[in-house]
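Tutorial handout. Part one gives the primary structure; part two gives the three-dimensional structure as tokens.
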Amino acid sequence: MLDRSESALGIVFRSTFYRSAFFSLLIAGIGLSAATPQLTLFLVRELGTPLPVAGLYYVTNLAAPIAGFAVGRWSDRAANRLLWFRICSVVGALGWVAMASATAIWMPFVISALALSVAGGSMAQLFAACRDELSRHPTRAENRVVATVRMAFTVGWMLGPVLGSWFGGVFGLRPLLLATAACVFAQLIPLGRQRVERYVDTHTDEPTERRRIDHMLPLLIFTGVCVLAMTGDTIKFGYLPIYMAEQLHVSDSMRGAVIGIQPLLELALLPLVARLADRFGAMRAMTAGAVLGLAGNLAYALSTSVLGLFVGQALTAGLWACAGALGVSIAQRLYPEGVGTASGVFLSAIPLGSAIGGTIGGIGVAAIGLPHVFFIPACLTSVAIVAFVILGNRERAEPA
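Part two.
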């Protein structure tokens, strides 16, 4: 089925598993992105949470790396890779039902830390299953296959906020959270009762626990470097609208256009990035993405007009296209002993980056103001570029 000359789109839609994973991620993306922008409003309006306290909700993202690591380790010991995908999906659905039923301020914080952090492991284990299938049926288009599957989540993330705003306005915020619970559970439906056996390379010895831990360092370094490159995104979503409204005096529609252009460009760039990675190498493409992210942050920091912000968004889309299309694949290659762990650790870097970026943004705005706060993520992304270059050189120097 996985002919080397076949297109990535053909591989995905001819394979029952890849096709099912595509629709599963589409459903999950719609549900999660419908609720996420409304959570602060839910805390304030439904539970009477003071706004400064509501802003601390996203600190619960710090639990994501712990949950991602634990779920990944358990997945790497299970015979069926989709077992922990299903467990995480059920835990997530129950967590969103509990969130919709919350009656006290503290409850969403506990639910997020204990249940929703585990739920994030479902996407990671689906990508781990993709890696198992690619290891069994190798193809030169592997980066494009992963990017094609990943595009479903991006499409869902674009549709979800629009549908969530409409649904919440018509039916209310608690029903919206119940609808999200239904979507998180419904991501199980496309996969049905399929099994994806954990891939074991018969040509290498099964690694010992000590060796697994020793070999994890490159994965952790890569994940940490990605966190540095991602911090600017939270600052952008938190403070770029304020900068446009209060200093540039931009209309509501134009502000929406500036913010909304990035996911559209990211979606368009995903297959291009994957094709470049298949040709020149994933780490080189990731380094180029970080350079684009650096340029994007500088565009934000130096911009005095809406045009400059559009340029910044276009450049930042390049970074996120690289992270979305290639990040989890690079993490899996850096830690082949446990692709479930690699997937969980890397994908947990995104919420961790959000938590760190929010903290940096708050301190930076108070210290140097807007738009100069974006010089901070520019500096962090510069460090990430150097680190990516070092990791790429190390990867090329290792014997095949």
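Part three, for discussion. The CA atoms of residues 15 and 306 lie 44 Å apart. The chain has 18 helices and no strands.
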